[in-house]
Amino acid sequence: MSHETARDKFSAFLAEQGHRVTNQRMAIFEAAVTQKDHFTADQLLVHAKAIDDSVSRATVYRTLPLLTDSHVLREVDIGTGEKFYRPAVEGSAACVL
After folding, report:
1. Which of 44, 34, 33, 56 is nearest to 83 (CA)?
2. Reduced 3-state DSSP string for the chain
3. 68: which residues sit within 8 A by CB, 6+ positions away?
4. Is residue 3 pLDDT above 90, yes or no?
5. Whole-prediction pTM value?
6. Looking at the DSSP assignment, which residues form a beta bridge with residue 75?
7. Are 42 and 59 in contact (CB under 8 A)?
8. What confidence score (pLDDT) does residue 90 get?
9. Closest C-alpha among 64, 35, 37 to residue 50
10. How far is CA 73 from CA 41, 57, 94, in A?
11. What is the CB neighbour count within 10 angstroms for residue 15?
């Protein structure tokens, strides 16, 4: 799935689920799909705040399930007990489709 297709899919998913497409959610989306490696929610927060400094930790934690439920991100268990994520976007360095 291309970056543009993933963005459209995520926006459509939000609308279907009755969620608003906000600048903060889209900043989190952009930060997530441009990651080159697996990342945690806290790492994602740092990258998302670089895009939109109004992104909060709570918004990241509420948006992550939306990103995984829409199949834009995949949750990965790397055996550390901490949740890691990776993009499910074609061409991402972290994605193996």
Report:
1. 44
2. CCHHHHHHHHHHHHHHCCCCCCHHHHHHHHHHHCCCCCECHHHHHHHHHHHCCCCCHHHHHHHHHHHHHCCCEEEECCCCCCCEEEECCCCCCCCCC
3. 74, 75, 85
4. no
5. 0.86
6. 85
7. no
8. 54
9. 35
10. 12, 18, 11
11. 11
Tens of pLDDT, residues 72-81: 999 988 888 8
Q: Give 52: exposed, middle or buried? Use CB within 10 Å, 0-12, 13-18, 19+.
A: middle
**CA distances, 4 to each of 8, 34, 68, 78, 90 (Å):** 6, 12, 17, 28, 10
Question: Which residues on neighbouring strands pair with residue 87, listed in sequence order?
Answer: 73
Beta bridge partners, 64, equal none
Question: What tokens were used for 21?
Answer: 């497409």
Structure tokens given for 84:
């890691």
